[in-house]
Specification:
Layout (H helix, E strand, L loop, with lengths): L10 E5 L2 H5 L5 E2 L2 E2 L4 H8 L4 H9 L3 E10 L18 E10 L2 E11 H7 L7 H5 L7 E11 L1 H7 L5 E10 L2 E10 L4 H4 L20
Antiparallel strand pairs: 1-7, 2-3, 4-5, 5-6, 6-9, 7-8, 8-9
């Protein structure tokens, strides 16, 4: 399927305090600690490769379908604040991650155009594989954890939200290389178990009509 236009970023319904994310905790939700299970904490707050995690869990290779990859002249309020640290001009890439017939994650990333030209020559290759070619050293820092919603995600995952999401930065040589946001399908509960006790989560509702 040929790439389409960039989609609006998913609407965050709740976001963890940055200090809680930095400490490896899952934060507070409406005054109650989000009962995020251990396996889901490892997936969302750990510094491992999600591509390798998905492949290890399912036993299937991860296939990347590029939704869009184009210049992003005005990231605006949709982008994580860490994107401001990237040199302009920016390129933004959005993809689905699939294992077999199951769509297990959606991701978007922001790049300096020069860095994108260097590291994203193979559009359908997972970013982690591109960046670690020749055993290049990388450092990953998780910056945000959120519950998000978007009709396009519901259509792609085939399951209702909200969905757990995180964003993080890759560094090389002490310099920020890219900012990546990932959203995970509830289908992963097949391997990881329930993400949390939904009774403990009182999700505030917002109008998502402006999101596709």
């Amino acid at each position: 399927m040929p790439p389409t236009k960039l989609w609006p970023s998913p609407l965050p319904l709740w976001q963890a305090p940055s200090e809680a994310v930095a400490a490896g905790l899952c934060g507070q939700l409406d005054g109650e600690r989000a009962a995020l299970s251990g396996p889901w904490r490892l997936l969302l707050l750990g510094d491992g490769s999600p591509t390798r995690h998905l492949q290890s869990l399912t036993g299937l290779a991860v296939e990347v379908e590029v939704i869009a990859m184009e210049a992003d002249a005005d990231a605006g309020g949709e982008a994580p604040v860490e994107v401001e640290e990237l040199d302009r001009p920016l390129l933004r890439r959005q993809v689905w991650l699939r294992c077999g017939t199951q769509t297990l994650a959606w991701a978007e990333s922001w790049w300096n155009q020069t860095q994108a030209d260097r590291h994203l020559q193979e559009r359908s290759q997972p970013i982690w594989r591109s960046l670690t070619a020749n055993r290049a050293e990388l450092y990953r820092e998780v910056d945000g954890l959120a519950l998000v919603q978007a009709p396009a995600l519901e259509a792609g995952f085939g399951r209702p939200g909200p969905y757990w999401s995180r964003h993080y930065r890759f560094f090389r040589g002490g310099r920020e290389l890219t900012v990546i946001r990932e959203v995970f399908s509830p289908a992963l509960e097949r391997w990881l178990g329930p993400a949390q006790h939904t009774a403990s989560l009182q999700i505030p509702t917002k109008d998502t009509s402006g999101y596709n």
